[in-house]
Write a structure and sequence with these properties.
146 residues, mainly alpha, 5 helices, 84% helix, 0% strand
Length: 146
Amino acid sequence: MPEKPIPEQDPITGKSYALHYLIATVILIGTLFWALYDEAWGQRPWKAFQDQWKERYSAFLNTAKSKSAKSEQSVEQDPQYAALKQDYEKAYQDSKAASDESRKKLDDASARLLAVQSVFTDRRAYVNALTYELETSTSTSAKASK
C-alpha cells in the first residue's frame, strides 16, 4: 500500500508546540504551589490558636485525671460502696444459675430450629423446582404428570 504524501501545511510536523507546553507547565506548577500554600497557611489562620488550645486543654485534662483518680479511690474506700459491691456480687451469683439455664434452653431451641429449617428449605426448593417445571412445560401430558 503506497504511503500518502504529507501535506505541506501539516500542523503536527510543521509547527513546534514546545512554547505552549512550557506555558502550560509553568501555570500548572504555579497553581500547585498556590494550592499548597492556600491549604497549609492561607485558609487556616487559626492554626496557632488550635495549637495553643490543644496545649491548654491537655494540661486541664491531666489535672482533671488526677482529681478523678483521687475521687474514685475515696468512693471505693467508702463502706457504703463496699456494701453495694457485695450486694451486687451476691445478686450476680444468684442470677447466674437462672441465666445459665435460660442460655441452655435458648441454645437447645436454636439447634431444633436449625434442624427444622434445613429440612424446610430443602422441601421448599423441591416444590419450587416442580412448580417451575410445571409452568415451563409445553406439552399437556407433561403438565398432567406433574
